[in-house]
Amino acid sequence: MPLKLSIIWLPVLLFSCHLMADIPQCFRFTWIGAYENHSNVQSETCETRVGDFNEIPCSMPLVVTPDDTVPDVKALWQNQTEDREKFLCQMSPGYSCVKFSYIFKGGIQNITYMAAKVNTTNGCYTQTKENGMQVEACVCTSRVGLQPCNGSANNKPTLVMGWALCLIGSYQLLNKYRIL
Fold first, then answer.
1. For residue range 125-178, what is the model confidence (pLDDT) as tens digits?
2. pTM of the model
3. FRET partner for 170 with CA separation of 20 to 30 A, picked from 40, 74, 98, 118?
């Protein structure tokens, strides 16, 4: 009898671990790069920032960092006290997470994180403009319950770790009740 219970309960526990995770998400905001007067960013919008250059992606909210360095999205994701939901969006079916970086003379000028419908596979693509500006677009597919992929280089080890922890927890629970 204990063997039958473990065969029944193990898939239920694994499925419940899967349901506890959120819908896949993407980061969604624009880091505007080095910016002299940080207090002025509150009055700006993507329309005022980009103007007539419609091909430049921008996604609200606009973000500055105290020392003008690239945002630490890992810290943002892990910080449960921060209102991180305003920096996230759901990855809808048919969409991918994208990170657009504008790079000039080796320095990152700005970055836009967003969800978008793209005609390409996962990976990074770079285009160099006539003025030397490089535009890098990195496309990825986020996984349920994990940090959005458009904020990290590789989240596959985290996915494996998440499933391993779920399996270990399920095993311990089943063993505690002597179902195994």
1. 999 999 999 999 999 999 998 999 998 654 343 344 344 334 444 454 445 555
2. 0.70
3. 74
C-beta neighbour count of 135 within 10 angstroms: 16
What are all long-range contacts of 69-74, with beta carbons under 8 Å and residues at least 24 apart? 70/31, 70/108, 70/111, 71/31, 71/111, 73/27, 73/113, 73/147, 73/148, 73/151, 73/152, 74/147, 74/151, 74/152
Q: How far apart are CA 89 and CA 48, in angstroms?
A: 22
The residue whose two tokens read 């630490």 is 72
Query: Of 66-70, 118-122, 130-134, 142-146, which range is least confident?
Result: 118-122
Could you give the count of Cα atoms lying within 13 Å of 37 in the half-sphere of its Cβ? Answer: 6
pLDDT at 179: 56
